[in-house]
Predict the 3D structure of the following.
Amino acid sequence: MRLWSLHPRELDRQGLLAVWREGLLARKVLAGETRGYRNHPQLRRFREHASPRSAIAAYLHAVADEADRRGYRFDRARIGTSERGAAPIPVTTGQLRFEARHLATKLAERAPETLAGRSAAPVPPPHPLFRVRPGPIADWERPGAAHAPSPRTP
């Protein structure tokens, strides 16, 4: 499961479809509607939110907004609410950089045209639910050697 902290516009078609499916799964997990993935580390930041269900709904609505922009039709009824107003979740500059490197590795193989069109900002744009603050990658992240060399640096 990968619930990107990056803005959905940074994702290629495959990534956008995957984050939609995985976000819907996360919604079910947070609602207690499935037994799988209950302990997935990426869900921690949603569980720690004052309103986890509102947070995942806001996350999914932003993904669906990007799908709309691209002309895709994601079924917002699957989100379970039209509510979009959730308090922001903090994300660190280190986490965004880590995810940007991880995504770049994937895009280099499957969608080089998307990689070429991505933001060149020192800190990539966050998903609209997240607010950026300085810091290293998240302690729940499980960096692998293939993702980036020294991933804990901000």
In short: Residues 8-133 form one domain. The beta strands are 89-92, 130-133.
